[in-house]
Amino acid sequence: MKMNNMDPHFAKRSHQYRRAFTLVELLVVIAIIAIIAGFTLVGLKTIKARQYKNTASAELERLETALENYKAKYGVYPPDNKNNPLLPQLYYELSGTTRNGNNFTTLDGSSSIASGDVSTAYGVGGFVNCSQGSVEDGTVAKNFLSGFNTKEISYNFTNNSVQTAVLVTSVGGPDSTYQPLNASGLNPFRYVYPGVNNPGSYDLWVQLVINGQTNLVCNWSREVQINSPLP
To answer: What is the three-class DSSP state of 187?
Structure first.
């Protein structure tokens, strides 16, 4: 009978070497997984940031279309809020209103504001896009925001102690620390008419803060302005 003359100590050492090699392999695999996970997180943040900017840009372009349709009807663009470009009366002008006594109500019935409060909030006596008088001899308002999901882009907000409605981007800040209206998730479209950057028409813009970086989405440049301060 053939005897196995292998040194038992050698067998034990070989087994230990195999265990040690397996542990090194495990550490290498863990390191590789951590690196891949890091790249994945960075990639996801980049994709999410692009989605935020694309969504805000698409919303701004749709508002531009609404503003051009408004101008086609009235011959001018909506007035701005000279006191505060953060809170223009765009929602009321683009959604259209009816006047009943001293109250203005949007055509979709989502918001109502007293005429006195219009003056306090916006510094104007009323709205241009407003149904007044009979159909035959009066102005018939039109909803230029038809097709928008107004629940995503409009919010009731208190302006100068007046409850009003404001147009916002659906992506929010997006960073939660960026709160231009001192309210989480509310990031308004800002509007000036006549424009400074577009003196022949209007300026429309929104600032997004993504991962601590400012992104200016505006109608005077089709490229998002990175780390650009508000005009």
So the answer is: coil
